[in-house]
């Protein structure tokens, strides 16, 4: 099934019933047995591991949470570029995205309560390959920036509720 088929099918389903546009995602996490930093993650029928580098007390068995956050942003950018190129009819032969982020550990460790525990700066570099003119790819970039869900998470505050049981 092509991306345009997905777009058309989704448009029809949502026009039929607006509630068809609402989706929810769920991810389960558990500290791995006999570890201090290794987390086992389950997403639908997929599993992966999260850890910290030794400098942060981990065993470096996998990427850490902020690296996965950057990976989520970069992956979402690649997918959103593909999606919007198809939607706008823009030829696109390839997409490469690099995401860099700066984080000050004063916030995470509580050494300075005025320092954010999260990223102070995130930089996204996108390389697009294709035959269209640069201004066409600039139009595509604007569409992606307006519609990328993970970019929206980085740019805008999202309500979060935490319940401890």
UniProtKB/TrEMBL annotation:
Entry-linked Pfam families: OsmC (PF02566)
Matching PANTHER family: HYDROPEROXIDE REDUCTASE
Protein name listed in UniProt: OsmC family protein
Organism: Amycolatopsis dendrobii
């Amino acid at each position: 099934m092509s991306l345009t088929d997905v777009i058309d099918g989704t448009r029809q389903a949502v026009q039929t019933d607006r509630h068809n546009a609402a989706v929810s995602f769920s991810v389960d996490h558990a500290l791995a047995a006999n570890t201090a930093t290794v987390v086992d993650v389950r997403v639908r029928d997929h599993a992966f591991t999260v850890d910290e580098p030794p400098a942060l007390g981990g065993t470096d068995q996998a990427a850490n949470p902020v690296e996965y956050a950057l990976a989520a942003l970069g992956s979402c950018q690649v997918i959103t570029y593909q999606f919007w190129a198809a939607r706008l009819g823009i030829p696109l032969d390839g997409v490469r995205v690099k995401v860099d982020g700066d984080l000050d550990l004063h916030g995470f460790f509580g050494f300075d309560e005025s320092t954010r525990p999260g990223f102070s700066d995130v930089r996204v570099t996108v390389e697009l390959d294709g035959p269209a003119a640069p201004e066409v790819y600039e139009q595509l970039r604007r569409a992606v920036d307006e519609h990328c869900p993970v970019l929206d998470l980085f740019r805008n505050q999202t309500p979060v509720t935490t319940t401890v049981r």
